[in-house]
Amino acid sequence: MPTSLVPVATDLHHGFLHTFLGLLFSAAAIIPPFIDGISFGWIVLLWPALNLLLLGASYLCNGKWGVWLLGKSKSTGVVSLPALVFFFPYLLGMYSFWYLKHMCLGEQVCNQVAAGIWVGRFPLNLLSNDSRFDNRKLTHVVDLTCEFPSRRAFHGNIQTYLCAPSLDRLLADPRTLLDCAKKVLNDSDSCTYVHCANGHGRSGLFAGMLLVMRGECKDLDAAKIFMRKKRSVINWQPHQQAVAQQSLDLWSTSRSEENDEQPLECLLP
Description:
The protein is 52% helix and 10% strand. The chain is an alpha/beta fold. A five-stranded mixed β-sheet has the order 1-2-5-3-4.
């Protein structure tokens, strides 16, 4: 599919959820003062309300807005200080929910889904010298989150850190994903930790792309079936798969063009 025909990254589910919660907080901040008089305790709720409404608009209109608002650097994975301060109420609530959820669910932090490919969640309590990586040391980290800052304690000693940030339930643009995948595959001895927030969707899709590009799976659906044997929680949204599929289409097109540009003598036996 041509790049120009790709729909803008949106997610109605999270868009309506964030907008509803934002309106709820707004109502809680605005209505009581009309009844009991002005109170800073109520007005302060406008802070998380604005966070939620802005991210809701991003999910509904263009997911790239949210990536820009959260201000995560692609080169270092650092979230900008102004973004951390402005989105503090949202991030505090989201991080708390994430931590409690994984405490209760007891999911494994990560799993090796294929040779040299690990899929997992944000490595809060994981180090690159963890015993599970003893047989093959990590050489690459692919970070697909925009809501979590990179953790240098994890990737600081790893050869290559790559970041393709997106909001949860979305995916970075196809060319960014493809550039990251090519950098991983350019190293034949690479061992890569691919992570999003939970190790389900974004990270699973990127790992699926690697498997298709390595010729180990025929398509993303086959890759999902293959990887779920190792990490059963891998799952993604159809609109996310459409973006990953476009990355693979771009990759196939570039390979065809490279073959067409080979000199005739290179093609003769």
